[in-house]
Design a protein that fits this description.
The chain is an all-alpha fold. It is about 80% helix and about 0% strand. It has one domain.
Length: about 475
Protein backbone atom coordinates (compact mmCIF):
# COMPACT_ATOMS: atom_id res chain seq x y z
CA UNK A 1 0.00 0.00 0.00
CA UNK A 2 2.82 2.39 0.81
CA UNK A 3 4.35 1.81 -2.61
CA UNK A 4 0.98 2.48 -4.23
CA UNK A 5 0.51 5.81 -2.50
CA UNK A 6 3.91 6.96 -3.70
CA UNK A 7 3.32 5.93 -7.31
CA UNK A 8 3.46 8.80 -9.77
CA UNK A 9 1.88 9.24 -13.17
CA UNK A 10 2.47 11.77 -15.88
CA UNK A 11 -0.19 14.32 -16.85
CA UNK A 12 -0.72 16.00 -20.18
CA UNK A 13 1.77 18.71 -19.30
CA UNK A 14 4.50 16.10 -18.75
CA UNK A 15 4.71 16.87 -15.04
CA UNK A 16 4.63 13.93 -12.59
CA UNK A 17 1.44 13.69 -10.53
CA UNK A 18 0.99 11.52 -7.45
CA UNK A 19 -1.49 8.65 -7.54
CA UNK A 20 -4.67 10.04 -5.98
CA UNK A 21 -5.39 8.73 -2.47
CA UNK A 22 -8.99 7.92 -3.43
CA UNK A 23 -7.77 4.88 -5.31
CA UNK A 24 -5.32 3.48 -2.77
CA UNK A 25 -6.06 4.61 0.81
CA UNK A 26 -8.04 2.13 2.99
CA UNK A 27 -11.72 2.99 2.61
CA UNK A 28 -12.60 3.68 6.29
CA UNK A 29 -9.64 6.02 6.64
CA UNK A 30 -10.37 7.59 3.26
CA UNK A 31 -14.03 8.21 4.10
CA UNK A 32 -13.05 9.88 7.37
CA UNK A 33 -10.31 11.90 5.67
CA UNK A 34 -12.62 13.04 2.89
CA UNK A 35 -15.79 13.56 4.93
CA UNK A 36 -14.78 14.70 8.40
CA UNK A 37 -13.57 18.17 7.36
CA UNK A 38 -16.75 18.58 5.32
CA UNK A 39 -18.92 17.38 8.20
CA UNK A 40 -17.28 19.81 10.59
CA UNK A 41 -17.63 22.69 8.16
CA UNK A 42 -21.26 21.74 7.48
CA UNK A 43 -21.92 21.73 11.23
CA UNK A 44 -20.54 25.25 11.42
CA UNK A 45 -22.77 26.17 8.45
CA UNK A 46 -25.77 24.70 10.26
CA UNK A 47 -24.84 26.61 13.40
CA UNK A 48 -24.72 29.91 11.57
CA UNK A 49 -28.11 29.18 9.96
CA UNK A 50 -29.55 28.69 13.43
CA UNK A 51 -27.79 31.68 14.97
CA UNK A 52 -28.88 33.85 12.02
CA UNK A 53 -32.54 33.07 12.71
CA UNK A 54 -32.10 33.43 16.47
CA UNK A 55 -30.88 37.00 16.01
CA UNK A 56 -33.61 37.79 13.47
CA UNK A 57 -36.25 36.48 15.88
CA UNK A 58 -35.12 39.12 18.39
CA UNK A 59 -36.46 41.79 16.02
CA UNK A 60 -39.97 40.32 16.01
CA UNK A 61 -41.90 37.27 14.78
CA UNK A 62 -42.72 38.97 11.46
CA UNK A 63 -39.01 39.28 10.73
CA UNK A 64 -38.58 35.57 11.40
CA UNK A 65 -41.56 34.81 9.14
CA UNK A 66 -40.10 36.97 6.34
CA UNK A 67 -36.77 35.13 6.46
CA UNK A 68 -38.66 31.81 6.48
CA UNK A 69 -40.66 32.84 3.40
CA UNK A 70 -37.41 33.82 1.64
CA UNK A 71 -36.00 30.34 2.16
CA UNK A 72 -37.32 28.85 -1.13
CA UNK A 73 -35.24 31.33 -3.16
CA UNK A 74 -32.15 30.80 -1.00
CA UNK A 75 -32.71 27.08 -1.38
CA UNK A 76 -33.00 27.49 -5.15
CA UNK A 77 -29.66 29.33 -5.29
CA UNK A 78 -28.02 26.58 -3.28
CA UNK A 79 -29.68 24.01 -5.57
CA UNK A 80 -28.16 25.58 -8.68
CA UNK A 81 -24.74 26.00 -7.05
CA UNK A 82 -24.48 22.58 -5.44
CA UNK A 83 -26.25 20.76 -8.27
CA UNK A 84 -23.77 22.16 -10.76
CA UNK A 85 -21.10 21.25 -8.21
CA UNK A 86 -22.24 17.62 -8.25
CA UNK A 87 -21.72 17.54 -12.01
CA UNK A 88 -18.31 19.19 -11.65
CA UNK A 89 -17.39 16.78 -8.88
CA UNK A 90 -18.40 13.67 -10.80
CA UNK A 91 -16.69 14.68 -14.06
CA UNK A 92 -13.51 15.95 -12.40
CA UNK A 93 -13.13 12.94 -10.10
CA UNK A 94 -13.80 10.53 -12.95
CA UNK A 95 -11.26 12.33 -15.16
CA UNK A 96 -8.64 12.07 -12.45
CA UNK A 97 -9.47 8.39 -11.92
CA UNK A 98 -8.93 7.83 -15.65
CA UNK A 99 -5.77 9.98 -15.51
CA UNK A 100 -7.22 12.34 -18.12
CA UNK A 101 -5.64 15.48 -16.70
CA UNK A 102 -6.42 17.68 -19.71
CA UNK A 103 -10.14 17.09 -19.20
CA UNK A 104 -9.75 17.68 -15.44
CA UNK A 105 -8.24 21.13 -16.06
CA UNK A 106 -10.90 21.96 -18.65
CA UNK A 107 -13.63 20.99 -16.17
CA UNK A 108 -12.16 23.18 -13.43
CA UNK A 109 -11.90 26.26 -15.63
CA UNK A 110 -15.36 25.87 -17.16
CA UNK A 111 -16.88 25.50 -13.70
CA UNK A 112 -15.90 29.06 -12.74
CA UNK A 113 -17.59 30.49 -15.84
CA UNK A 114 -20.77 28.58 -15.00
CA UNK A 115 -20.70 29.98 -11.46
CA UNK A 116 -20.57 33.58 -12.72
CA UNK A 117 -23.39 33.00 -15.22
CA UNK A 118 -25.57 31.46 -12.49
CA UNK A 119 -24.95 34.49 -10.27
CA UNK A 120 -26.05 36.94 -12.98
CA UNK A 121 -29.44 35.22 -13.28
CA UNK A 122 -30.16 35.46 -9.53
CA UNK A 123 -28.81 38.99 -9.29
CA UNK A 124 -31.40 40.15 -11.83
CA UNK A 125 -34.15 38.27 -9.98
CA UNK A 126 -33.14 39.81 -6.64
CA UNK A 127 -33.22 43.33 -8.00
CA UNK A 128 -36.42 43.03 -10.04
CA UNK A 129 -38.46 40.13 -8.63
CA UNK A 130 -38.16 40.15 -4.83
CA UNK A 131 -41.29 42.22 -4.18
CA UNK A 132 -43.42 40.18 -6.55
CA UNK A 133 -42.21 36.94 -4.91
CA UNK A 134 -43.26 38.06 -1.41
CA UNK A 135 -46.51 39.64 -2.60
CA UNK A 136 -47.50 36.19 -3.94
CA UNK A 137 -47.30 34.79 -0.39
CA UNK A 138 -48.47 37.50 2.01
CA UNK A 139 -50.33 40.79 2.15
CA UNK A 140 -48.86 41.76 5.54
CA UNK A 141 -46.96 45.02 4.76
CA UNK A 142 -44.32 44.52 7.45
CA UNK A 143 -43.49 40.95 6.40
CA UNK A 144 -43.40 42.15 2.79
CA UNK A 145 -40.90 44.95 3.49
CA UNK A 146 -38.70 42.76 5.68
CA UNK A 147 -38.66 40.10 2.97
CA UNK A 148 -37.80 42.47 0.11
CA UNK A 149 -34.90 43.98 2.08
CA UNK A 150 -33.52 40.56 2.91
CA UNK A 151 -33.92 38.88 -0.48
CA UNK A 152 -32.61 41.82 -2.54
CA UNK A 153 -29.26 41.68 -0.74
CA UNK A 154 -29.07 37.86 -0.64
CA UNK A 155 -29.61 37.57 -4.42
CA UNK A 156 -27.92 40.78 -5.55
CA UNK A 157 -24.63 39.83 -3.88
CA UNK A 158 -24.89 36.06 -4.39
CA UNK A 159 -21.63 35.90 -6.38
CA UNK A 160 -20.04 34.66 -3.14
CA UNK A 161 -22.19 31.56 -2.73
CA UNK A 162 -21.80 30.45 -6.36
CA UNK A 163 -18.03 30.82 -6.49
CA UNK A 164 -17.57 29.47 -2.95
CA UNK A 165 -19.44 26.23 -3.71
CA UNK A 166 -17.65 25.78 -7.05
CA UNK A 167 -14.18 26.33 -5.61
CA UNK A 168 -14.93 23.96 -2.75
CA UNK A 169 -16.01 21.27 -5.21
CA UNK A 170 -12.67 21.58 -7.01
CA UNK A 171 -10.82 20.98 -3.75
CA UNK A 172 -13.18 18.17 -2.79
CA UNK A 173 -12.78 16.38 -6.11
CA UNK A 174 -9.04 16.05 -5.55
CA UNK A 175 -9.42 14.90 -1.95
CA UNK A 176 -8.38 18.18 -0.28
CA UNK A 177 -11.45 18.62 1.89
CA UNK A 178 -9.47 20.05 4.80
CA UNK A 179 -9.34 23.34 2.90
CA UNK A 180 -13.12 23.25 2.46
CA UNK A 181 -13.42 23.14 6.23
CA UNK A 182 -11.32 26.30 6.43
CA UNK A 183 -13.27 28.19 3.76
CA UNK A 184 -16.72 27.22 5.00
CA UNK A 185 -15.76 27.58 8.63
CA UNK A 186 -14.27 31.04 8.16
CA UNK A 187 -17.27 32.26 6.19
CA UNK A 188 -19.74 30.90 8.73
CA UNK A 189 -17.85 32.29 11.75
CA UNK A 190 -17.68 35.74 10.15
CA UNK A 191 -21.42 35.53 9.53
CA UNK A 192 -22.07 34.65 13.18
CA UNK A 193 -19.85 37.53 14.37
CA UNK A 194 -21.32 40.17 12.08
CA UNK A 195 -24.97 39.11 12.44
CA UNK A 196 -25.62 40.94 15.75
CA UNK A 197 -23.27 43.79 14.79
CA UNK A 198 -25.13 44.62 11.59
CA UNK A 199 -28.65 43.72 12.78
CA UNK A 200 -28.52 45.78 15.99
CA UNK A 201 -25.87 48.36 15.05
CA UNK A 202 -23.03 47.61 17.50
CA UNK A 203 -19.52 49.16 17.45
CA UNK A 204 -20.53 52.14 15.36
CA UNK A 205 -22.09 50.12 12.54
CA UNK A 206 -25.55 51.19 11.31
CA UNK A 207 -28.58 49.35 12.71
CA UNK A 208 -29.76 47.45 9.60
CA UNK A 209 -32.30 45.00 11.02
CA UNK A 210 -33.23 42.19 8.65
CA UNK A 211 -31.00 43.70 5.95
CA UNK A 212 -28.07 43.32 8.36
CA UNK A 213 -28.64 39.56 8.57
CA UNK A 214 -28.48 39.37 4.77
CA UNK A 215 -25.37 41.56 4.62
CA UNK A 216 -23.57 39.39 7.19
CA UNK A 217 -24.42 36.28 5.17
CA UNK A 218 -23.07 37.55 1.83
CA UNK A 219 -19.97 39.02 3.51
CA UNK A 220 -19.08 35.60 4.92
CA UNK A 221 -19.62 33.98 1.52
CA UNK A 222 -17.38 36.46 -0.29
CA UNK A 223 -14.54 35.99 2.21
CA UNK A 224 -14.90 32.21 1.82
CA UNK A 225 -14.65 32.66 -1.95
CA UNK A 226 -11.38 34.56 -1.60
CA UNK A 227 -9.96 31.73 0.50
CA UNK A 228 -11.19 29.18 -2.04
CA UNK A 229 -9.34 30.97 -4.83
CA UNK A 230 -6.14 31.00 -2.80
CA UNK A 231 -6.31 27.31 -1.85
CA UNK A 232 -7.03 26.19 -5.41
CA UNK A 233 -4.18 28.21 -6.84
CA UNK A 234 -1.63 27.32 -4.17
CA UNK A 235 -2.65 24.00 -2.63
CA UNK A 236 -4.36 22.05 -5.42
CA UNK A 237 -1.68 20.96 -7.93
CA UNK A 238 -3.83 18.32 -9.65
CA UNK A 239 -5.79 21.03 -11.47
CA UNK A 240 -4.58 24.23 -13.10
CA UNK A 241 -6.79 27.33 -13.14
CA UNK A 242 -5.94 29.88 -15.81
CA UNK A 243 -7.76 32.86 -17.36
CA UNK A 244 -6.46 31.73 -20.76
CA UNK A 245 -8.27 28.39 -20.36
CA UNK A 246 -11.54 29.92 -19.15
CA UNK A 247 -13.44 29.42 -22.38
CA UNK A 248 -16.75 27.60 -22.46
CA UNK A 249 -16.31 24.15 -23.91
CA UNK A 250 -19.56 22.62 -25.12
CA UNK A 251 -18.60 19.01 -24.42
CA UNK A 252 -17.41 19.80 -20.91
CA UNK A 253 -20.48 21.88 -20.05
CA UNK A 254 -22.73 19.12 -21.39
CA UNK A 255 -20.91 16.48 -19.32
CA UNK A 256 -21.22 18.62 -16.20
CA UNK A 257 -24.93 19.21 -16.66
CA UNK A 258 -25.80 15.65 -17.63
CA UNK A 259 -25.17 14.88 -13.97
CA UNK A 260 -25.75 18.40 -12.66
CA UNK A 261 -29.17 19.23 -14.13
CA UNK A 262 -30.99 16.29 -12.50
CA UNK A 263 -29.30 17.26 -9.23
CA UNK A 264 -30.33 20.92 -9.69
CA UNK A 265 -33.90 19.87 -10.46
CA UNK A 266 -33.90 17.46 -7.54
CA UNK A 267 -32.85 20.16 -5.09
CA UNK A 268 -35.04 22.79 -6.76
CA UNK A 269 -38.00 20.58 -6.04
CA UNK A 270 -37.21 21.29 -2.40
CA UNK A 271 -37.77 24.99 -3.13
CA UNK A 272 -41.12 24.21 -4.75
CA UNK A 273 -42.08 22.02 -1.80
CA UNK A 274 -41.12 24.73 0.71
CA UNK A 275 -43.07 27.37 -1.20
CA UNK A 276 -46.11 25.09 -1.42
CA UNK A 277 -45.88 24.09 2.24
CA UNK A 278 -45.67 27.75 3.27
CA UNK A 279 -48.85 28.44 1.29
CA UNK A 280 -50.62 25.55 3.07
CA UNK A 281 -49.41 26.67 6.51
CA UNK A 282 -50.37 30.31 5.89
CA UNK A 283 -53.98 29.07 5.65
CA UNK A 284 -53.71 28.62 9.42
CA UNK A 285 -51.37 31.44 10.54
CA UNK A 286 -48.07 33.19 9.87
CA UNK A 287 -46.82 31.56 13.08
CA UNK A 288 -47.20 28.12 11.47
CA UNK A 289 -45.04 29.29 8.55
CA UNK A 290 -42.47 30.65 11.02
CA UNK A 291 -42.40 27.24 12.76
CA UNK A 292 -41.69 25.55 9.44
CA UNK A 293 -38.81 27.95 8.84
CA UNK A 294 -37.41 27.29 12.31
CA UNK A 295 -37.67 23.54 11.71
CA UNK A 296 -35.58 23.83 8.56
CA UNK A 297 -32.90 25.72 10.46
CA UNK A 298 -32.85 23.14 13.28
CA UNK A 299 -32.93 20.06 11.04
CA UNK A 300 -29.90 21.37 9.16
CA UNK A 301 -27.82 20.58 12.25
CA UNK A 302 -28.45 16.88 11.57
CA UNK A 303 -28.83 16.85 7.78
CA UNK A 304 -25.85 19.08 6.94
CA UNK A 305 -23.33 16.57 8.39
CA UNK A 306 -24.86 13.87 6.18
CA UNK A 307 -24.53 16.16 3.18
CA UNK A 308 -20.92 16.67 4.24
CA UNK A 309 -20.52 12.90 4.37
CA UNK A 310 -22.01 12.65 0.88
CA UNK A 311 -19.61 15.29 -0.39
CA UNK A 312 -16.87 12.84 0.52
CA UNK A 313 -18.74 9.80 -0.80
CA UNK A 314 -19.41 11.14 -4.33
CA UNK A 315 -15.78 11.66 -5.42
CA UNK A 316 -14.66 8.38 -3.79
CA UNK A 317 -17.27 6.36 -5.68
CA UNK A 318 -16.80 8.31 -8.93
CA UNK A 319 -13.01 7.91 -8.79
CA UNK A 320 -13.12 4.19 -8.03
CA UNK A 321 -15.76 3.60 -10.69
CA UNK A 322 -13.42 5.25 -13.18
CA UNK A 323 -10.59 3.09 -11.82
CA UNK A 324 -12.78 -0.08 -11.95
CA UNK A 325 -12.45 -0.89 -8.23
CA UNK A 326 -15.69 -2.61 -7.25
CA UNK A 327 -15.03 -3.55 -3.63
CA UNK A 328 -13.97 -0.01 -2.72
CA UNK A 329 -17.28 1.28 -4.08
CA UNK A 330 -19.34 -1.20 -2.04
CA UNK A 331 -17.30 -0.64 1.11
CA UNK A 332 -17.84 3.12 0.81
CA UNK A 333 -21.62 2.69 0.44
CA UNK A 334 -21.88 0.42 3.49
CA UNK A 335 -19.90 2.76 5.73
CA UNK A 336 -21.81 5.82 4.52
CA UNK A 337 -25.19 4.21 5.29
CA UNK A 338 -24.07 3.28 8.79
CA UNK A 339 -22.72 6.76 9.57
CA UNK A 340 -25.77 8.54 8.12
CA UNK A 341 -28.19 6.37 10.10
CA UNK A 342 -26.34 7.15 13.35
CA UNK A 343 -26.64 10.90 12.68
CA UNK A 344 -30.36 10.60 11.94
CA UNK A 345 -31.02 8.67 15.15
CA UNK A 346 -29.39 11.47 17.10
CA UNK A 347 -31.70 13.96 15.38
CA UNK A 348 -34.75 11.84 16.16
CA UNK A 349 -33.82 11.67 19.85
CA UNK A 350 -33.25 15.41 20.16
CA UNK A 351 -36.52 16.41 18.48
CA UNK A 352 -38.52 13.90 20.52
CA UNK A 353 -37.03 14.93 23.88
CA UNK A 354 -36.56 18.72 23.87
CA UNK A 355 -38.57 20.41 21.08
CA UNK A 356 -39.84 23.18 23.39
CA UNK A 357 -36.35 24.12 24.53
CA UNK A 358 -35.16 24.33 20.92
CA UNK A 359 -38.04 26.63 20.01
CA UNK A 360 -37.32 28.95 22.94
CA UNK A 361 -34.00 29.74 21.28
CA UNK A 362 -36.04 31.64 18.68
CA UNK A 363 -37.94 33.80 21.17
CA UNK A 364 -41.01 31.61 20.58
CA UNK A 365 -44.43 32.63 21.86
CA UNK A 366 -46.69 30.12 23.64
CA UNK A 367 -48.58 29.60 20.38
CA UNK A 368 -45.36 28.96 18.46
CA UNK A 369 -44.16 26.47 21.09
CA UNK A 370 -47.47 24.58 20.96
CA UNK A 371 -47.43 24.34 17.16
CA UNK A 372 -43.69 23.74 16.93
CA UNK A 373 -43.42 20.97 19.52
CA UNK A 374 -45.99 18.88 17.65
CA UNK A 375 -44.29 19.65 14.33
CA UNK A 376 -40.78 18.68 15.44
CA UNK A 377 -41.86 15.47 17.13
CA UNK A 378 -43.97 14.34 14.16
CA UNK A 379 -41.59 15.23 11.33
CA UNK A 380 -38.60 13.62 13.04
CA UNK A 381 -40.11 10.13 12.63
CA UNK A 382 -39.19 10.44 8.97
CA UNK A 383 -35.52 10.32 9.99
CA UNK A 384 -35.78 6.53 10.38
CA UNK A 385 -35.71 6.31 6.58
CA UNK A 386 -34.08 9.55 5.43
CA UNK A 387 -30.46 8.50 5.98
CA UNK A 388 -30.56 5.67 3.44
CA UNK A 389 -32.38 7.78 0.85
CA UNK A 390 -29.70 10.49 1.06
CA UNK A 391 -26.80 8.05 0.71
CA UNK A 392 -28.46 6.20 -2.21
CA UNK A 393 -28.93 9.58 -3.88
CA UNK A 394 -25.20 10.29 -3.68
CA UNK A 395 -24.47 6.85 -5.18
CA UNK A 396 -26.78 7.59 -8.12
CA UNK A 397 -25.03 10.91 -8.73
CA UNK A 398 -21.51 9.50 -8.47
CA UNK A 399 -22.28 6.78 -11.02
CA UNK A 400 -23.77 9.24 -13.51
CA UNK A 401 -27.42 8.32 -12.86
CA UNK A 402 -28.50 11.50 -11.12
CA UNK A 403 -31.89 11.18 -12.84
CA UNK A 404 -32.64 8.40 -10.33
CA UNK A 405 -32.19 10.93 -7.52
CA UNK A 406 -34.55 13.23 -9.40
CA UNK A 407 -37.19 10.50 -9.63
CA UNK A 408 -37.00 9.85 -5.89
CA UNK A 409 -37.16 13.57 -5.08
CA UNK A 410 -40.17 14.21 -7.33
CA UNK A 411 -42.01 11.23 -5.85
CA UNK A 412 -41.27 12.27 -2.29
CA UNK A 413 -41.88 16.00 -2.38
CA UNK A 414 -44.34 16.65 -5.20
CA UNK A 415 -46.24 13.40 -5.71
CA UNK A 416 -46.60 12.48 -2.03
CA UNK A 417 -45.61 15.20 0.45
CA UNK A 418 -47.45 18.29 -0.84
CA UNK A 419 -50.69 16.51 -1.82
CA UNK A 420 -50.81 14.59 1.46
CA UNK A 421 -50.09 17.80 3.43
CA UNK A 422 -52.95 19.57 1.68
CA UNK A 423 -55.36 16.66 2.22
CA UNK A 424 -54.38 16.32 5.89
CA UNK A 425 -54.72 20.09 6.38
CA UNK A 426 -58.24 20.13 4.92
CA UNK A 427 -59.40 16.95 6.65
CA UNK A 428 -57.76 17.05 10.09
CA UNK A 429 -56.18 20.47 10.69
CA UNK A 430 -52.70 21.84 11.32
CA UNK A 431 -51.34 19.13 13.63
CA UNK A 432 -52.00 16.47 10.98
CA UNK A 433 -50.06 18.34 8.26
CA UNK A 434 -46.71 17.32 9.73
CA UNK A 435 -47.43 13.59 9.20
CA UNK A 436 -46.98 14.16 5.47
CA UNK A 437 -43.20 14.07 6.04
CA UNK A 438 -42.98 10.48 7.43
CA UNK A 439 -45.48 9.33 4.79
CA UNK A 440 -43.34 10.82 2.00
CA UNK A 441 -40.12 9.34 3.39
CA UNK A 442 -41.56 5.82 3.45
CA UNK A 443 -42.40 6.16 -0.24
CA UNK A 444 -38.92 7.54 -0.86
CA UNK A 445 -37.08 4.59 0.70
CA UNK A 446 -39.13 2.07 -1.29
CA UNK A 447 -38.28 3.75 -4.60
CA UNK A 448 -34.63 4.26 -3.60
CA UNK A 449 -34.12 0.56 -2.86
CA UNK A 450 -35.63 -0.45 -6.21
CA UNK A 451 -33.43 2.00 -8.14
CA UNK A 452 -30.29 1.07 -6.18
CA UNK A 453 -30.80 -2.59 -7.04
CA UNK A 454 -31.14 -1.61 -10.69
CA UNK A 455 -27.95 0.47 -10.77
CA UNK A 456 -26.08 -2.22 -8.84
CA UNK A 457 -26.96 -4.85 -11.43
CA UNK A 458 -26.15 -2.56 -14.37
CA UNK A 459 -22.98 -0.78 -13.23
CA UNK A 460 -21.45 -2.15 -10.03
CA UNK A 461 -21.89 -5.91 -10.32
CA UNK A 462 -20.23 -6.18 -13.79
CA UNK A 463 -17.03 -4.53 -12.53
CA UNK A 464 -14.02 -6.88 -12.26
Amino acid sequence: MKNETKEKVTGTSGEPRQENKMGVMPVPKLLVTMSLPMILSMLVQALYNIVDSIYVSQIDENALTAVSLAFPIQSLMIAVATGTGVGINALLSRSLGEKNFEQADKTANNSLILAVLSYLVFCVFGLLGSRLFFASQTNDPQILEYGVQYLTIICGLSIGIFLQVTLERLLQSTGRTIYNMLTQGTGAILNIIFDPILIFGYFGFPKMGVAGAAAATVFGQIVATCLGIYFNLRKNPEIHLSFRQMRLDGRTVKAIYIVGVPSILMQSIGSVMTFGMNKILLMFSSTAAAVFGVYFKLQSFFFMPIFGLNNGVVPIIAFNYGAQKKERILHTIRLACLAAFAMMMLGLAVFQLIPDKLLLLFNASDDMIAIGSTALRTISWSYLFAAFCIVFGSVFQALGNAVYSLIVSIARQLVVLLPSAWILAKAFGLDAVWWSFPIAEIMSILISVILFRKIYMEKIKPLP
